[in-house]
Design brief:
CATH architecture of the largest domain in chain A: 2-Layer Sandwich
CATH superfamily of the largest domain in chain A: Bira Bifunctional Protein, Domain 2
Structural class of chain A: alpha+beta
Largest sheet of chain A: 11 strands, mixed
Largest interface: A-B, 67 and 67 residues
Number of strands of chain A: 27
Oligomer: homodimer
């Protein structure tokens, strides 16, 4: 249990890897780079999905489903996008197995069942979707198309880590088509804000909203908006992106519409996505050396009730009270578990539910029944309170909200105290080496400088923050004139 | 619109293919055999998913996610299962593309990026899941495992049809592990009943519950339970299956547990699934020559409001009333659309919403406003009623329930009058040729006879119904003694 969990200060990376497995979120599979999302982890992902799906629908989007496979010739139609993903594509070349005569009971690929054209397992679906949109759009009346897809995608990664970087991952990808550039840009920004609101209000993760530099932009996009979060080790994590595609995919797939004047124009596009990577961000933002810390909005179990008893009679009395609480919590849609296992001691259970990040715990012993009080513990700050049994339901409902807010405030404080303005490269390196976090620095705007800084420090430009005010200055590396600061950081 | 829809009596198969596309449910993609599920079709699928997911969770199951790919050596471990699916496996052999020097701007498979071991795109997930269960099960305390997965699977089909048979399809697959044979059998049957209840109560599709013969059984299972529905053309459709796997997969993947006495035993397994094929069953059970007929439980729009107006003033008055209705329907969770397009005539709208199967329609003209009445039309039986504007909300709520029940009754009547008992092979053929539907016949229990009947008539044994009473008789083909009747039919 948590006793065996590596401490964050010792080895943050090891702590993360262990915690994901020990808390039953996910594990590695026998398939290189592909993970198994276990029921407890998947329950958290389902809560994320439900809320995002609600937000997408509220902003006018509909779900649909497009094929897993993309024929190679279609995949390569938008050249920049294809080039960007070419090195990580899983390719289907055959469609049949047959008995291996040399190894009875074994199978081998049937060479007679070679596909005429190879199929790419989608690393992203712009190609297949824009080739479809061609058939859906004739006139301005068919626009906008506001479509989202929940799907699995495959990007063949060489170095993988549970949730953060896996060869297969789950995500949603929005793909919209518009009559005007302005409308597409508005959509791109809107969805970035949807993601930011979701991260902050639902996951309690503060994010910086910004745009990517040319070199970090999505392949095939004209502008990439992003939300960037900061993990407890001072490394940044890109939590979601929203791309303005210009007319690139419309041109590659010949998607035109007749405008109100009857003139043919190319359609404007956007795409945007978040993935199971958010699970990694969730773990790394809030959790501690005892295990997961989950924001109440995302906790599969929001309150656990642990009985403290010696005799069967005590257990029966406590169970009656606990079951009554369970039904009251359910009425309020508070998800509750009464841990009535008789095979484990309370101390074991406390540690287990702490490891799993359950936000609140009610302990009930014979004395509590007598005194009409319960001991209520908060997972986030590990405090305990004695609460009257009458008021406990309201108390829990209230502190669940408090915890949600406190987690955000705590993460926000950490983030805000880890955005450091520097004036020169010495300071820049010093912050990265001794403090970490975001470094706010002037940059001359060239790709060469960006690349050089990455070489020297491993830090990349995470984003050009949206709220950046113009400010005269000089590039930290080259000393050339610069008009605004950008955010650098080492990143996941 | 429906004017152009082929009539069922003319060509049922063509009617189906056209309807699926015209009603915006799905379309074929550029990828052989893979479909695109369009937003309207996907919205119906989402409603199915939500209800099934609720039912699975209510019966103690949790969702998880396992990899898309299965290494070949793992795939072939359970030999019968592997053999059963070998001929329809999409195989990933490479993990990278590179620039094609001979064709600038084009890509080709990088031969240096050949996988050491081929990966099968899952046609079903028993192999990958049981290889994982090995790590999850040590003791009887770890059992049962009750897990479900929502996923896409690929079976390379040579002849495909939208929803009914596609190379990629969406489904859920439950995979459970148990300490005893009895418990696994109980689970297998339970899930068949969950499917049957879902089909009947939610989709309004009556089904026969039964077991498959040896030849129709799932590869790797010891018993396959199924639910069989009857389409309007008298052909059967397998709507869901639940498999008792015995210890086959436990043995193939060495999944053992220590029982209460500390002795090692193999685990018992089940698996069960339904897919987007259900969409096909839905269309073919209820729809008519005007288009879709959707049971209210599954209709993305349950009531559509169409304004009848000439002047803008009339339109404004009607809109006010309609918007008021919309907000009242929303309060009752009745999904409603006010079709306020000014670009289309009422007749066009009527036909469009009929084609899309919206269960009820309210038409509002200036006269209706004056008389405080609305015209309400039912999609299922095409009747119209004049309803007082005051009572219209309650009226719609009530007829939505009525329609749900009536659709089931109508389908049940059709089904029940299309189960024909026959005594000999002449009658058998005659029913298939002139009446269609299920043929209830004695069968000698041999695979040879089953095969011969299939050759002669194209009919297969759909199932051995669960409620079959024992009855002495003689096989319709061979005249050999038989103890019970089974259900034959031509099938999708």
């Amino acid at each position: 249990m948590s006793k065996n969990l590596t401490k964050r200060a010792e080895d943050y990376s090891k702590w993360y890897n262990e915690l994901v497995v020990k808390a039953d979120l996910a594990e590695n599979s026998a398939v290189r780079g592909c993970m198994i999302i276990k029921p407890y982890g998947y329950a958290i992902w389902e809560k994320m999905q439900a809320e995002l799906d609600r937000m997408f629908k509220e902003t006018g989007h509909q779900n649909a489903y497009f094929p897993l496979f993309v024929p190679k010739s279609m995949f390569e139609a938008e050249e920049k996008n294809a080039e960007g993903f070419a090195k990580e594509c899983a390719v289907v070349t055959h469609y049949r197995l047959k008995n291996d005569e040399d190894n009875p009971g074994k199978l081998k690929v049937d060479e007679n069942a070679k596909l005429e054209e190879e199929l790419i397992v989608r690393p992203t679906s712009e190609a297949i979707i824009w080739s479809t949109y061609k058939g859906w759009v004739q006139s301005y009346r068919d626009l906008p198309l506001l479509i989202n897809q929940w799907a699995n995608v495959v990007r063949w990664e060489m170095r993988t880590r549970l949730f953060l970087r896996t060869s297969e991952f789950l995500w949603q990808e929005g793909h919209t088509a518009h009559a005007t550039k302005e409308e597409a840009l508005e959509e791109t920004e809107k969805m970035m804000h949807v993601y930011a609101d979701f991260a902050e209000q639902f996951m309690a993760i503060p994010v910086v909203r910004g745009t990517k530099t040319d070199s970090e932009r999505f392949a095939g996009a004209e502008e990439t908006y992003c939300i960037e979060a900061l993990m407890q080790d001072g490394k940044a994590l890109q939590a979601g992106t929203s791309h303005f595609l210009g007319q690139n995919f419309a041109k590659a797939f010949d998607v035109k519409f007749a405008n109100k004047e009857g003139k043919q124009e190319y359609v404007w596009g956007t795409s945007w996505g978040v993935s199971t990577r958010l699970m990694g961000a969730l773990v790394m933002t809030h959790s501690d050396d005892l295990g997961l810390v989950l924001p109440p909005n995302l906790a599969p179990i929001q309150v656990v009730i642990v009985p403290i008893f010696k005799t069967e009679e005590e257990f029966n009395v406590i169970s009656k009270v606990a079951n009554e609480l369970v039904s009251q919590f359910k009425k309020l849609n508070i998800s509750v578990k009464f841990d009535n296992r008789t095979t484990h001691k309370p101390g074991f259970k406390f540690a287990e539910w702490e490891l799993k990040g359950v936000p609140t715990r009610i302990a009930i012993g014979p004395k509590d029944i007598e005194n009409k009080t319960f001991e209520v513990a908060r997972r986030d700050n590990l405090t305990k309170e004695i609460v009257s049994s009458e008021g406990v339901i309201t108390y829990i409902a209230t502190i669940l909200e408090t915890i949600q807010n406190d987690l955000f405030s705590k993460a926000l404080h950490y983030r805000d105290t880890h955005i450091t303005e520097v004036q020169n490269f010495e300071e820049f390196k010093d912050v990265l080496d001794h403090k970490a976090g975001f470094v706010s620095a002037h940059w001359d705007g060239t790709e060469e400088t960006e690349e050089k800084i990455k070489e020297l420090t491993k830090a990349t430009i995470r984003c050009i923050p949206l709220n950046n005010s113009l400010e005269e200055g000089f590039c930290v590396l080259t000393g050339s004139k610069s008009t605004r600061r950008v955010l650098f950081a080492k990143a996941y």
